[in-house]
Write a sequence for this structure.
């Protein structure tokens, strides 16, 4: 079973195992430890640069790379709301959060439903256009500076936003493997994002 664990908790879990009997393999961006208690696989959000094999449990290379702070852009978008930011390590150094009305779906049929749907589509497009403009304004200067980008909210909304703002296509190229499906893009959610950004995919068995 794989779960995402904060990097500080991963360090607490693995540090005591360093040097114990077993085997360690660093390859393909992850670390695999065969311990007396079972096998542990750790896959950090930023793929491990270190590679090698050890005839004991050797967690130091993993912990050293996990502890590195990165410059990360963040774009969280759902219909009606967005949160864009830049993190230096776990510190939010630039951000903009906004909301824009997008009506829910119309349950009735007929011409009124068609008018409602067209209005809703227009609202959705305007909301995503605004989110894209904000993302371009905040993250445009960061192109070439950030190590990665955290995308989250709703996948369809993110995809449509980028389609409307083609200059943001580079965000997908730098996107972390994990998509952060937050329920609502608010400032408090953005503030908490670093825990998840640096969380490690940990599999124990």
């Amino acid at each position: 079973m794989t779960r995402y664990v904060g990097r500080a908790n991963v360090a607490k879990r693995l540090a005591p195992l360093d040097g114990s009997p077993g085997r360690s393999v660093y390859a393909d961006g992850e670390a695999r430890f065969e311990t007396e208690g079972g096998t542990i696989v750790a896959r950090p959000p930023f793929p491990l640069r270190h590679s090698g094999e050890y005839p004991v449990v050797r967690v130091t290379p993993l912990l050293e790379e996990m502890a590195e702070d990165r410059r990360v852009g963040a774009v969280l978008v759902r219909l009606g709301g967005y949160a864009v930011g830049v993190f230096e390590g776990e510190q939010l150094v630039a951000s903009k959060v906004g909301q824009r009305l997008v009506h829910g779906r119309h349950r009735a049929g007929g011409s009124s439903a068609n008018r409602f749907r067209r209005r809703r589509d227009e609202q959705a497009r305007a909301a995503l256009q605004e989110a894209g403009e904000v993302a371009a304004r905040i993250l445009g200067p960061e192109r070439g500076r950030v190590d990665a980008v955290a995308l989250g909210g709703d996948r369809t909304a993110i995809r449509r936003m980028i389609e409307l703002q083609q200059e943001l296509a580079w965000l997908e190229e730098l996107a972390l493997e994990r998509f952060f499906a937050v329920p609502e893009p608010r400032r408090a959610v953005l503030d908490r994002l670093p825990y998840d950004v640096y969380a490690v995919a940990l599999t124990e068995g």
In short: Residues 71-194 form a domain with the Nucleotidyltransferase; domain 5 fold (CATH 3.30.420.60).
